[in-house]
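dumping this here before i forget
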Amino acid sequence: MKRISDKKKQEMGELLKNQNLLPVNNNDLFRFMKEKEVFEALLANGADPDYTDSYFKFPILSLAYSHGYYPAFKLLLEYGAHPNVPSTITAEKTDLLFDLFFSYVKNKKYVDVLAKHKVNFNVILPDTGETLLEWMLRYSPLATDAIKTILENGGDPNLPNKDGKTVFDLANNGEIRIIDSLMPLLDQLRK
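structure:
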């Protein structure tokens, strides 16, 4: 949770008071997502960083990502938003991480801030049962930076998929290919 001085919190409260935004209403988070100062003032004065709106039924963190509002995304995490949230893009409520890694280069700053806030990289794709690591090795085996990010931040190569297979099992069966440069890191994590 982000710590701010009492003076700063008081200034933020005055900002909200001047805009008739007190008492804080969680729905205002959506209205002011683009206005960093007001958005942070809402969070600092009690708005819920895990708020799920009643219309879209998605956590505000997912909406901040899908609308490209990185400052709001980062502030939500700094104020305690849960980092593992469903995507707004897929109907199956797939973890947002799959969307982020689908276009890792474009989304690296989002992934990095999630890693800083202890996102759980050991997630499974609901419709296929693949782990995030397996999914990356299967469909983006050359994205070694992305795969290293997963592994260096708690991604477990020993986590079985829905069929009970780990990435090591899949590699041994020839179902996925692992780039040689990743093997030392994977071997360190092998159980």
